[in-house]
Structures are given as C-alpha cells and as structure tokens.
Design goal:
Layout lengths: L1 H13 L4 E2 L8 E5 L2 E4 L2 E5 L2 E2 L9 H18 L4 E8 L5 E7 L2 E2 H7 L4 E2 L3
Parallel strand pairs: 4-7
Antiparallel strand pairs: 1-2, 2-3, 3-4, 5-9, 6-7, 7-8
C-alpha cells in the first residue's frame, strides 16, 4: 500500500506543469528530467551531472529518485534568470551546455545538493 502511494505521488510530480521563467522575454524552460531541459526550442543536456532516469527507469526506486531530481532542478530554475553556455552536442543530438541561474552553476549545485552524481563519460 505504501509503495503504491509513492508511485502515485511520483506520477503526480511528473505530470505537473513544467514552464519556468527564462532569460528571454516570451521564452520558457521545460524540464524534461533532472539533467535535461528544453529552452528556446533547444534540448539541452546539462553538463557535469547525471541523474536517475524518469523515462524507462529500471525500477520504482530509480523513478522516485529521478522525479525528486527533476523537482529539485525545477526549484533551482525558479530562482532567477536561466542562461546556458553551449559546448557541443551529444550522441542524441542534444546541446551540451553549462546551465546557470543567477550566476550559480546548476550542474554543480545539483551535485552539492545530493540529487545528482558527477557525469562519468
């Protein structure tokens, strides 16, 4: 019963609205998961960090941790103007970038806050 409630809560987080204020007037940031966002029509894989999967997660625990990372990323991005520095693309065609909010490196902050691990290529 307790496990079922946890999954229901995780699904509720995953389906909540995802728009966040961004640097450009009229643009928005969509949070895809704990390490990927979409901004100005560009899918951005945040460099430096890795978070548990929310899409095709391997187990219930990974899903719960992934949704927690996604929610934490949302709280960081809500704190100010979102900017990014693109450095290339990954094998999926996503833009690799360092993402900042008000001068704070989001990737490094997620790792410090314990919701992400350093990315190991």
């Amino acid at each position: 019963m307790h496990r079922r409630l946890l999954v229901i809560a995780a699904v509720a987080v995953a389906t909540s609205p995802l728009a966040v204020s961004s640097a450009k007037a009229g643009s928005n940031v969509i949070i895809i998961d704990g390490d990927t966002i979409r901004m100005d029509g560009i899918t951005i894989r945040i460099m430096e960090l890795d978070t548990p999967e929310t899409f095709k997660s391997r187990c219930e625990n990974e899903l719960v941790l992934g949704l927690a990372a996604k929610e934490h990323l949302r709280s960081l991005l809500d704190c100010g103007t979102v900017t990014y520095e693109a450095t290339g693309t990954d094998r999926y065609g996503r833009t690799l970038a360092k993402v900042h909010v008000g001068g704070v490196n989001v990737g490094q902050q997620m790792i410090r806050d314990g919701v992400a691990l350093p990315y190991q290529p």
